[in-house]
Design a protein that fits this description.
By secondary structure, the protein is of the alpha+beta class. Helices cover about 25% and strands about 35% of the residues. The two termini are about 20 Å apart.
Length: about 150
């Protein structure tokens, strides 16, 4: 999922690589955050190879903080432990994907890789992010293509 793409480069989150489920209090504790009153588990994803200790919560627009980046009219991303705390207190986003790490490209790098056919693009669809079986996200996205790879 490309979060931001401009003349300085691009940054995205891998949405089809779950790595396990953990108690939310354990995740917050590992980040050095207060865990008081936090309940529930969260499924974690490997969001990419860059800075794997930084968390990103991809979520619907029902939740917003000052640091939230709106991707489009359906999906946003926030990198803040407060989101995890809000989730643990039933005040967070209804739909969410919690990922650690991201994928990044330098200026012009992603454009070059696209021109070489290393990637294909497909419009963002919240169903692929939040509802699809992560093991099938790639196949589902490919199946939506109007032309073969």
């Amino acid at each position: 999922l490309i979060v931001r793409h401009d003349k300085s480069g691009a940054f995205g989150i891998i949405i089809n690589h779950p790595v396990g489920e953990r108690p939310l209090a354990e995740v917050l504790g590992a980040l050095g955050e207060d865990t008081a009153g936090v309940a529930g588990n969260v499924r974690l994803f490997a969001g990419g190879p860059v800075q794997p200790r930084i968390g990103f919560i991809v979520h619907g627009l029902d939740y917003h903080r000052a640091e939230t980046i709106d991707i489009d009219a359906h999906v946003a991303v926030t990198s803040s432990p407060e989101v995890l705390r809000d989730i643990g207190h039933d005040k967070g986003p209804r739909q969410r994907l919690v990922a650690f790490g991201y994928a990044g490209w330098a200026a012009g790098q992603l454009e070059g890789e696209l021109a070489q056919g290393a990637w294909f693009t497909e419009p963002e669809d919240p169903k692929l992010i939040f509802d699809a079986d992560p093991a099938k996200v790639w196949d589902d996205a490919v199946a939506r293509r109007s032309f073969p790879l």
